[in-house]
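Narrative of activities, Objective 1.

The group set out to show that a structural description can be obtained from nothing but a protein's sequence at a throughput compatible with the screening campaign. Below is one input-output pair from the validation batch, recorded exactly as produced.
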Amino acid sequence: MAERPGAVTMRGSPLTLVGSLVSIGDKAPDFQALNTDLQSVRLSQFAGKTVIVSSVPSLDTPVCDMETRRFNQEAEKLGPDVVVLTVSMDLPFAQKRWCGAAGVTRVITLSDHRDASFGQAYGVLIKELRLLARAVFVVGKDGTIKHVQLVKEITEEPDYAAVLNAVKGETG
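Output recorded for this entry:
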């Protein structure tokens, strides 16, 4: 599998990402991860909907917490044809606890801890830490990648406006 040394940094220290980063226009790779009820979920289950896939290192960190809460707020405004997934390596139990404490009900949290299926398929698995890099992808109703945002410094938030503009472009 491809490795991309220095693709992202954490507090300025370079990290290696495993896998090739998907590109706009690519067919979105299907992946399998666990929800908070330990059920297997696949991206393909959301076919026909616009999907925001937010990749975060851990919900138990301040920036990931802020990002997921923000997408939860935005999800309320986006309507039923838009699904927001947040994928991390956190265990499903930790994700469930965090969602309950944070009042997050509109974002579906998924754990990639078992197989790193998402991290490898989308090119965001951090080799040194076995965590996911901060990135946001928008998958269109047709199953293709419409937006890719890999956040170079993983302690920084993504550009929410760019993500929401990509979604609006897809949902009209």
